[in-house]
Design brief:
With about 375 residues, the chain is an alpha+beta fold. Helices cover about 25% and strands about 20% of the residues.
């Protein structure tokens, strides 16, 4: 649902955060103690209490922490036409440092835990710095879209992730309060990740609303990330990446009416284990040439894993993060990170021609952003691009 076209005032900030606190919308709450008789903290509780540094070569919230937090809020906004991006981004970066350090009074005493905030800028702003820069091209239109004008594109992305869901609206309100009337919110979407399932040594992936393991394939090693994820140049964007956001409604009722075998044929993987229909392990790539004795492909020709396969498309891997949503309708907030927008556009173009999964989806919001390089106190957020 599109947000009201106005910037929340400081009064609105207090009203929103106060109402959230009163409602007690807290997730993953636990108590750490070494006293005898107290249970040891769970792995998820320990992760939620581990701070994630906001500064460095890359912004936090893409590959750090290694396992994505359970909760996410994406806020998309526009900058006023006369607003200089550089000073605004520098302020937001400093606010992010104080929020993640727990020293910002707008946290209302909440512990930041594993909070991360990731900032991206849209194509219009990138073009003001250089028309040929990565991130200067708008996301094209695709089939099965029902996107209102306010839910397409945008100048600014603020991605907030945390183990504690209570932090998300509080942190968003603090950042919008810092930006003041220099920004105007377009839309926002919150989501949560499903239960993590082990897929390889030291690596997990969550289930999505359709019951399947989501995000198995991707650039997971440092070498793969340098090749497919992080921008290497020009210097103004080195260390950043390109993000694509797509909010989708899912036809859960119609998908649930399929048999398990039919659902697995849509994805090309076993629902329970995530193993490709061609065999192997959950981490195995599908054998697209494998056939039954009577000549049928084990992975159907229109299965999602075949149509979206990077080798078949001829592109690199994208780092995919999917979050299940309840509002405005049951669905998925899909986020992909890649160092070439064609990785996403070529993949979806190929899926558009014949992918058994797409008929169960309707996209209601979409945008692409240049995720800015990392920052520190000597190099403010956005300074490499906007000075």
């Amino acid at each position: 649902m599109d947000r009201v076209d106005r910037h929340p005032s400081r009064r609105a900030f207090l009203d929103v955060t106060g109402a959230t606190v009163a409602a007690g919308l807290i997730a993953g709450c636990s108590s750490d103690s070494d006293k005898p008789g107290r249970p040891a903290p769970s792995a998820s509780a320990a992760a939620e209490s581990t701070p994630v540094p906001a500064t460095g070569r890359h912004q936090a919230g893409v590959t750090f922490p290694r396992s994505a937090q359970r909760n996410l809020l994406a806020v998309v906004a526009d900058l006023g036409t006369v607003v200089a991006p550089g000073p605004l981004l520098a302020e937001l970066g400093e606010t992010i440092r104080t929020l993640t350090a727990g020293s910002d009074p707008r946290l209302l005493g909440l512990s930041p835990g594993d909070l991360t905030v990731t900032v991206g800028v849209g194509p219009r702003l990138v073009r003001t710095a250089g028309a040929s820069l990565p991130g200067a091209v708008d996301l094209p239109r695709f089939s099965r879209e029902r996107i209102a004008p306010r839910a397409r594109g945008g100048d600014l992305l603020i991605q907030i992730c945390a183990g504690d869901a209570l932090l998300l609206p509080v942190v968003a309100a603090a950042l919008l309060d810092q930006a003041g009337d220099r920004v105007r919110e377009r839309w926002r979407q919150s989501g949560r990740r499903g239960t993590d399932v082990p897929v390889a040594k030291g690596r997990t992936a969550p289930r999505n609303l359709l019951g399947f393991i989501d995000g198995i394939v991707g650039p997971h090693t440092t070498a793969e990330q340098e090749r497919d994820l992080w921008l290497a140049g020009p210097p103004a964007v080195a260390g950043g990446t390109l993000a694509v956001l797509r909010r989708m409604e899912l036809d859960l009722t119609r998908f649930a009416a399929l048999s398990v075998a039919e659902q697995e044929a849509v994805f090309g993987r076993r629902r329970a284990s995530g193993v490709p229909l061609s065999g192997g392990t959950v981490a195995s790539g599908p054998e697209l040439g494998a056939k039954t004795p009577d000549g049928r492909y084990l992975v159907p020709v229109d299965a999602h894993v075949r149509r979206a396969n990077p080798t078949a498309v001829g592109v690199g891997h994208m780092l995919r993060r999917s979050y299940s949503t309840d509002e405005p309708a049951p669905g998925l907030l899909f986020i992909s990170f890649q160092n070439d927008l064609r990785t996403f556009t070529a993949t979806l173009t190929r899926m558009d021609t014949s992918d058994a999964l797409l008929p169960f989806t309707t996209t209601t919001a979409g945008a692409t952003f240049l995720i800015l390089p990392g920052f520190d106190q000597q190099h403010p957020l956005g300074s490499s691009l906007f000075g």
